[in-house]
């Protein structure tokens, strides 16, 4: 068994491992999975609320109900999908094959969300609700295994952060394509028919999503295959939820999604009604934020090589909160000044994104050391459960706040209350959420020094488990 040298808090130790360092090609292939997911998720976050309200003709409060209902149900299916993936047996591994099996249905249902049947209001609402739910099911069937696979590709903490950096750079690239291309492409393909333009543009994006998942499947490997105890799905869930660190991570996850997705859900309304700009500027504004996100993600690896990623995660949220509060006081008659400030704020906030997912893997490893049972699918799906509950709250909050502040999609100009509400959704409200995240991070104990010891002890435990399995003995 080889060893990986790990340095933490001024001391150095050697973590025994049989996992080689991951190559750039495999990390890029891993990143293609989130590229695919964000072709769909990025589209939904950036445009779906706007599409449903201003083009499809649904009432804002009804869009909020759709977001809330589907995301809550979807969160439950995530947890079940994680348990199913943990129990999958195939020549491709536990998690990889799902990206192959579900890629095409994922693409088809993503495109179908933007179909606009010419029906009465009630059937239109039912169609939007149904298609959003079906699309979310296939997103779960690809997304949960994808998120889980990083935990079995490598056990090297530095490689895990590096993989997550590649992942979110590719995710940012997908969102950049969506934000830059969807509106112009929709106008080009649809002309005066906005609905048709959106349908064709999203169909192109969904095709790229299918290709990305297939490339991810082909390019990554599952290397960590620890023996599984013959426990039931219910036992695995109960055991996981008894772990205080597991529960603390779920709280962080549920909160962590709120700042970005509340702001993203309101950004189109902000560009149009507060900054008073057209779709071209809106695309540039959204794209510049995505470039900032990618730059922030790329800073995560060098920073985490030098400092404890848990501490970085805490301070990034504190600084992001302060910058969000500052955003409220900007002069919105200067749109390019606002855009520049938003880029800087996004760079800082996005440093935490790769670290967040790497910390989930750390909590999963610490749980395995406590119980002797690796349930990566349950770990990541439970966190996705909380993430999607957060998404449901964020999406619903945007719709409900628009309704509360008397937003009128047909008005030539919004009233002062509606404008102020939109500003709050891109500044004060996300900032408050960042402060709650920072408070929740203090509950986590998987700092750098702790994880060095966990990885060392875990390698020994896995070696003993393998020996016991070969001898037909259950530890």
How far apart the termini lie comes to: 21 Å
Backbone structural class: mainly alpha
Radius of gyration: 22 Å
Number of helices: 18
* Order of secondary-structure elements: EEHHHHHHHHHHHHHHHHHH
Q: Tell me the total number of β-strands.
A: 2
Estimate the global geometry from the Cα principal axes.
globular
Largest sheet: 2 strands, antiparallel
**Helix percentage range:** over 70%
Assess the beta-strand content as a share of residues.
under 5%
Strand order of the largest sheet: 1-2
Helices and strands, with pairings:
Layout: E1 2-8, E2 11-17, H1 24-55, H2 60-86, H3 96-101, H4 103-112, H5 121-153, H6 157-190, H7 194-219, H8 233-241, H9 244-256, H10 258-274, H11 279-306, H12 309-327, H13 335-350, H14 352-371, H15 376-404, H16 416-425, H17 428-441, H18 448-470
Antiparallel strand pairs: 1-2
Helix pairs in contact: 1-5, 1-6, 1-7, 1-10, 2-5, 2-15, 4-5, 4-7, 5-15, 6-7, 6-11, 6-14, 9-14, 9-15, 9-17, 10-11, 10-15, 10-16, 10-17, 11-13, 11-14, 12-13, 12-14, 12-17, 14-18, 15-16
Pfam families: MFS_2
Family: Belongs to the sodium:galactoside symporter (TC 2.A.2) family.
Keywords: Membrane, Transmembrane, Transmembrane helix
């Amino acid at each position: 068994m080889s060893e990986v040298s790990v340095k933490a808090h001024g001391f150095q130790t050697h973590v025994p491992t049989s996992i080689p360092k991951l190559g750039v090609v495999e990390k890029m292939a891993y990143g293609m999975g989130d590229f695919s997911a964000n072709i769909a998720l990025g589209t939904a976050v950036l445009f779906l609320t706007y599409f449903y309200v201003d083009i499809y003709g649904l009432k804002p409060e009804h869009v909020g109900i759709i977001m809330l209902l589907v995301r809550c149900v979807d969160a439950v299916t995530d947890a079940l999908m994680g348990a199913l993936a943990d129990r999958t047996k195939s020549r491709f591994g536990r998690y990889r094959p799902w990206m192959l099996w579900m890629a095409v249905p994922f693409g088809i249902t993503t495109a179908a969300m933007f179909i606009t049947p010419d029906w009465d209001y009630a059937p239109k609402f039912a169609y939007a609700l149904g298609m959003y739910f079906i699309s979310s099911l296939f997103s779960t069937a690809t997304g949960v295994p994808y998120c889980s696979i990083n935990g079995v590709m490598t056990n090297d903490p530095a490689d895990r952060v590096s993989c997550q950096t590649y992942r979110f750079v590719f995710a940012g690239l997908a969102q950049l394509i969506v934000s830059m291309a969807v509106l112009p492409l929709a106008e080009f393909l649809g002309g005066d028919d906005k609905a048709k333009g959106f349908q064709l543009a999203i169909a192109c994006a969904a095709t790229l999503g299918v290709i990305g998942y297939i490339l991810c499947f082909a390019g990554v490997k599952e290397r960590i295959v620890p023996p599984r105890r013959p426990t039931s799905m219910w036992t695995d869930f109960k055991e996981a939820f008894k772990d205080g660190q597991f529960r603390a991570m779920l709280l962080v996850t549920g909160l962590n999604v709120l700042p970005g997705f509340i702001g993203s859900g309101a950004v189109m309304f902000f560009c149009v009604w507060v900054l008073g700009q057209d779709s071209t500027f809106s695309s540039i504004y959204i794209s510049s934020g995505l470039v900032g996100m990618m730059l922030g993600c790329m800073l995560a690896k060098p920073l985490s090589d030098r400092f404890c990623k848990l501490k970085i995660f805490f301070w990034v949220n504190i600084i992001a909160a302060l910058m969000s509060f500052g955003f409220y006081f900007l002069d919105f008659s200067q749109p390019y000044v606002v855009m520049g400030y938003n880029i800087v704020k996004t760079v800082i906030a996005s440093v935490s994104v790769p670290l967040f997912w790497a910390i989930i893997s750390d909590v999963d490893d610490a749980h395995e050391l406590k119980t002797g049972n690796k349930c990566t699918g349950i770990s990541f799906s439970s966190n996705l459960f909380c993430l999607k509950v957060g998404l449901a709250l964020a999406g619903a909050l945007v719709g409900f706040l628009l309704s509360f502040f008397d937003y009128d999609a047909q008005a030539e100009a919004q009233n002062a209350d509606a404008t102020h509400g939109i500003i709050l959704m891109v500044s004060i409200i996300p900032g408050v959420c960042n402060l709650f995240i920072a408070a929740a991070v203090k509950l986590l104990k998987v700092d750098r020094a702790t994880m060095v010891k966990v990885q060392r002890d875990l390698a020994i435990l896995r070696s003993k488990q393998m020996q016991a399995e070969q001898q037909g003995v259950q530890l």
